[in-house]
Design a protein that fits this description.
This protein has one domain: Rossmann fold. The chain contains 12 helices and 2 strands. It is about 50% helix and about 5% strand. It is globular. Strands 1-2 form a two-stranded parallel ribbon. Helix 5 packs across helix 12 and helix 8 packs across helix 9. The N terminus is likely disordered.
Length: about 210
């Protein structure tokens, strides 16, 4: 489920919120909604489903039975079929990225957080989340300390961008889809989730579909 838009672990902000007791202090009826560019979600979800790490052996076995690719390392070549599978046969969880978008977009009872913003300004986003969830402020310096403690670099033990496919904390980057999406992958994703991509403001129109080589 994390990879369909809910993956705060990649930046450590979920643990950081816990360290502050945010869950216990959150105002009644207020939830957290974590979002991410659906194209990056597909790349990350591909690795989550098809490459074993510390927590997903059973998931990988099940996914590989349904997706018997000749070479799982060929992410670029396999993504179109994988994206099709993800949107037409969701199993764990039993909803798609598009479903998730419509379930959470515009909800006034939720504090919305984007993965991209967490990577850009983790301390600032943590500061905002705490204030909106609890109605109380937090010392900005304390927010910086917590964001640093639970950063990708500290949690994974390597720099963002240094990939380890055998780790749940695989790479920790934004925009990897630009390297992984073939023209066909762009078309398949647009068919199932082009409108949602625009709805969330990741694209202004569908021109991006023709932008690949």
């Amino acid at each position: 489920m994390a990879e369909l838009g809910l993956r705060p672990q990649a930046s450590g902000l979920a643990h950081a919120s816990g360290a502050l007791g945010v869950a216990e202090q959150a105002q009644e009826g207020v939830a957290e909604g974590f979002g991410r560019d659906g194209r990056d979600v597909m790349v990350s979800w591909y690795h989550q489903c098809l490459f074993p790490h510390e927590y997903n052996d059973e998931q990988v076995r099940a996914a590989r039975r349904e997706l018997p690719f000749g070479d799982y390392e060929d992410v670029y070549g396999n993504l179109p079929a994988f994206i099709e599978w993800s949107f037409t046969r969701p199993c764990a969880p039993r909803f798609t990225w598009s479903d998730f978008v419509h379930r959470w977009h515009g909800r006034e009872d939720a504090v919305h957080v984007r993965y991209e913003d967490l990577r850009r300004d983790p301390a600032g986003e943590l500061y905002r989340m705490v204030k909106e969830l609890t109605g109380k402020g937090i010392n900005l310096e304390r927010a910086r300390e917590i964001a640093d403690e639970f950063s990708f670099e500290k949690q994974a033990g390597r720099k963002s961008g240094e990939e380890n496919r055998r780790s749940f904390l695989r790479k920790g980057v934004v925009g990897e889809w630009k390297e992984r999406f073939s023209p066909e992958a762009r078309r398949v994703f647009d068919r199932y989730a082009g409108e949602e991509l625009i709805l969330l403001g990741y694209e202004k129109d569908r021109a991006w579909v023709q932008g690949g080589t």
